[in-house]
């Protein structure tokens, strides 16, 4: 089981390592780089498909994306471009009924392909309108279409499923996945939990656009990613349709169902802000924290460049329901007990570092958390508090046996370590060493240029170090060797 630690007000996400056994070598899905923005829905795309041609030259797609820590997450042989999820949830019984329309492109000749889905029963599935054979084995859902799929072909799968979604609970008591609450639920996906509520290619290397439509009892609301396209009521049920046009990794997709006070505003740059405050949490009743959101947003755009999405906001739930803060795309989810300015700064910065520029594998997690932690340091520096150098010095003063020095941030030893202190704090210290090397003006350009360079795409640690050295005009091996990859406390 994977341990959790509290870092910068955030209880780190956990995963079930036992589910994720190593696989034989296989081809992984090709990465995407921003092609999903403005993607058409699955229904729209289906209308453009040519009739299937019988083809028998394919092979089964890989049942994993070969992540160094979670080898069974994701799947090989295809690249998803759009998810259209239609969900109906009954908070009383905890029953979820769903239809997932998945538009994708084959990256290999396929006789069958896998999706990740845990704890829900598939009732039927089609590929390009024709019934597909279905097999479920643990988290692996295998679909075998009547006609094999040629490499390069676009196809659409429709999966009908239902059941009571499982949360993934760990020895230390923290959970992820579909988290049931008194009057609804909250979906948390980092790093493995999204497979508990919809079938998909659940690895950060495969991002897609989303339409998420949720029907719930009319006395509660359903909040999700992106822009609210429609809300309608029929009898005792209400339906909410959310659209996320820009590419999104599945682990930052969310649905929050419950009783919320919806707050709306707009930033100076014109971004609509929609925030959902749990009415039962009794948090920020004077609006002191939420009222600073436009200010924080303006500061972040000044530091990191144009905001990468069409909407923004937060979801605040009771701490009993939400075990940690998570950078759910466009609308970070934060526990009521941790809803303060520092956490808003941290999670908002993830919209640039982690959501728009997504790690290529879970080994690259420090690129998310190192930058978000350093954003906290920049915020206090820019607002009359401790400077980034003060934060660095305070952390560097910790004893050599402090857990901050347990391992290098770019090489967590196991999956259980990807959300521990070295990834966050020592990751931020790497960023500060870069700033010292290139100077403040060079650093300002670098920290704005990096998210523009990989906007709506993916990046690895190797991509980042190469980018920094190109901007610096020299190699920075002394930083990489001591701070990014070195064992123990650097001198």
Give the uncertain stretches in residue-range form: 1-53
Kindly state the number of beta strands.
Answer: 25
Radius of gyration: 22 Å
Oligomer: single chain
Distance between the termini: 34 Å
The fraction of residues assigned to DSSP E strands is: 25-35%
Which sheet architecture does the biggest sheet show? 8 strands, mixed
Helix content: 10-25%
- Category from helices, strands and their pairing: alpha+beta
Q: Can you list the strand order of the major beta sheet?
A: 8-7-11-5-4-15-18-17
Count, helices? 8
Averaged pLDDT, please?
89
**Shape annotation:** globular
Structure description:
The protein has eight helices and 25 strands. A hairpin with a 2-residue loop joins strand 7 and strand 8. The chain is of the alpha+beta class and 491 residues long.
Q: What descriptive keywords fit this protein?
A:
491 residues, alpha+beta, globular, 5-stranded antiparallel β-sheet
């Amino acid at each position: 089981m994977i341990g959790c630690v509290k870092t910068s007000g955030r209880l780190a996400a956990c995963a079930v390592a036992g589910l994720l056994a190593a696989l034989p070598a296989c081809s992984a899905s090709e990465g995407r780089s921003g092609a999903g923005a403005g993607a058409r829905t699955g229904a729209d795309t289906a209308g453009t498909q040519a009739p299937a041609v019988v083809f028998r030259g394919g092979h089964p797609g890989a049942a994993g994306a070969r992540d160094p820590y979670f080898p069974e997450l994701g799947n090989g042989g295809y690249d998803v471009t759009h998810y259209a999820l239609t969900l109906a949830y009954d908070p009383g019984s905890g029953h979820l009924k769903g239809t997932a329309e998945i538009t994708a492109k084959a990256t290999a000749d396929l006789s069958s392909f896998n999706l990740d889905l845990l704890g829900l029963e598939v009732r039927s599935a089609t590929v390009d309108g024709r019934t597909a054979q279905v097999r479920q084995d643990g988290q692996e859902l295998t679909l075998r279409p009547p006609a094999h799929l040629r490499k390069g072909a676009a196809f659409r799968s429709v999966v009908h499923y239902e059941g009571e979604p499982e949360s993934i609970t760990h020895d230390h008591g923290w959970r992820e996945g579909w988290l049931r609450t008194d009057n609804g639920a909250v979906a948390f996906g980092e790093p493995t939990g999204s497979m508990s509520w919809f079938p998909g290619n659940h690895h950060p290397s495969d991002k897609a656009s989303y339409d998420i439509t949720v029907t719930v009892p009319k006395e509660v609301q359903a909040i999700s990613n992106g822009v609210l396209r429609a809300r309608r009521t029929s009898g005792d049920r209400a339906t909410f349709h959310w659209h996320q046009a820009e590419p999104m990794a599945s682990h930052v997709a969310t649905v929050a169902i419950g009783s919320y006070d919806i707050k709306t505003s707009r930033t100076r740059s014109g971004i609509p802000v929609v925030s959902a405050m749990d009415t039962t949490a009794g948090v920020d009743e004077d609006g002191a924290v939420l009222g600073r959101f436009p200010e924080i947003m303006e500061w972040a755009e000044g530091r990191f460049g144009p905001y990468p999405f069409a909407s923004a906001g937060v979801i605040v739930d009771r701490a009993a329901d939400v075990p940690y803060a998570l950078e759910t795309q466009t609308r970070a989810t934060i526990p009521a007990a941790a809803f303060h300015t520092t956490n808003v700064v941290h999670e908002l910065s993830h919209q640039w570092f982690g959501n728009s520029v997504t790690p290529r594998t879970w080994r690259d997690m420090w690129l998310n958390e190192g930058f978000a932690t350093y954003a906290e340091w920049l915020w206090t520096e820019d607002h009359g508090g401790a400077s980034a150098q003060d934060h660095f010095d305070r952390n560097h003063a910790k004893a050599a046996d402090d857990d901050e020095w347990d391992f290098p941030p770019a090489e967590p030893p196991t999956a259980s370590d990807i959300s521990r202190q070295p990834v966050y704090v020592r990751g931020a210290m790497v960023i500060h060493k870069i700033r010292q090397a290139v100077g403040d003006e060079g650093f300002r350009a670098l920290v704005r240029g990096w998210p523009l360079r990989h906007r709506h795409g993916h990046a690895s640690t190797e991509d980042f170090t190469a980018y920094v050295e190109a901007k610096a005009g020299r190699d920075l091996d002394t930083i990489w060797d001591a701070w990014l990859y070195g064992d123990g406390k650097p001198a």
